[in-house]
Amino acid sequence: MRLSLRAALLAGALIASSGAALAEPVSLAQALTQGAEQSPRIAEAKAKAAAAEARARQAGASPNPELSVEVENFAGTGVFQGLRSTETTLAISQRIELGGKRSARVAVASSERDFAFLSFRAAEADLARDIRIAHAELRAAEDRAVLARENVGQARELARTARVLVEAGRDPPLRQLRAEAGLAEAQAEEARAFGELLAARRLLADLIGSDDPELSATPIYDEAAPGALPPATPSLDEQLAAAERDAAQARIRVARAEAVPDVTASGGVRRINDGRETAFVAGFSIPLPVRNRNRGGIEAAQSDALAGEAALLQARLNARRAQHDARMLLGAADARVEALSGPSLAQAEEAVRLARIGYGAGKFSLLELLDAQAALTTAKTALIEARLDRARALAALIRANVRAGD
């Protein structure tokens, strides 16, 4: 028990010592800006979008021509001894893509580029949502830590008062033991609150790239909710699913085009050493689509397109549900905040004040005072949690309403 009390006291001292650092807490706007600039998540998505843009440019390139040199009829026997009868052919060949391979390839690369840029936008939106929630969680953790510290101070004063009353013979020793047990419980809760504060601080610091060991968050309780999207407006997640479906459909064209054999045309000049004559040569080649017509590739691409269409429908359902659920949760949280921050909180504070005065005057028992303090702590904790739930629901609603053009 001594070690636990010592740890709790140390935690309380650390919370108290951080008061100076809380003088300049980070605002939500600052956190969002810093996170967008520092997050490796955004850097990764941006690099992938740039890579997709480069692949889209490369997709339109045609095959390179091939230069070949062929030497025949040398180092043999009889008339082919040495280099006297050597024939040298210098030729250039060009593969000609048929079946619309190039345009199909460009269509796939363009769809993948659109998907990559939408993924980049989604990464920004996801990061903003996570920062909003982490900022609110840090603010709530700070409020809980302050409340826990206040409860320790009240419990310590109550234990001192109980000890004085027991020594004066007005209360039995059991009252002092109960007050000291309440102090130990308050100190343990303070240590737990401090641990949650450290975890919340670390989470926000990681998201925004901060190395401030005493990072804190400004309170923001009245941020307005965004309006509803127009009925037929697709959300960012729907646009992302649509881009993925478009890429899958474009791959069907690529698979079908790959079933069409390409023609390779060649032409060159041949020199015959024996008579010092030259002649032109020309030819072409084409694969025979006897064994491989890419039927499996075509069927796979068609199935992927069907899966992409189903994924788009599911994304649309998920987006509508996310918008609806977030708005309902936000409305419920607003109602809780309004109810908990109204007269009931002031009444609970007044009840504690009167119970404390009455206990000192001998009109109320220790249990009545403890009940009043517990009711006040419950009310304050409920308000902190309601504000946190509102911030979470608001972050989810803002994320659900994001569009690519926002």
Automatic annotation (TrEMBL):
Coiled coil: 131-158
Coiled coil found in the keyword field: yes
Domain of life of the source: Bacteria
Sorted UniProt keywords: Coiled coil, Signal
InterPro entries (alphabetical): MdtP/NodT-like (IPR010131), OMP_efflux (IPR003423)
Signal sequence, renumbered to the chain: 1-23
GO molecular function (one): efflux transmembrane transporter activity
Presence of the UniProt keyword Coiled coil in the record: yes
Family per similarity comment: Belongs to the outer membrane factor (OMF) (TC 1.B.17) family.
Protein name, per record: TolC family protein
Organism: Sphingorhabdus pulchriflava
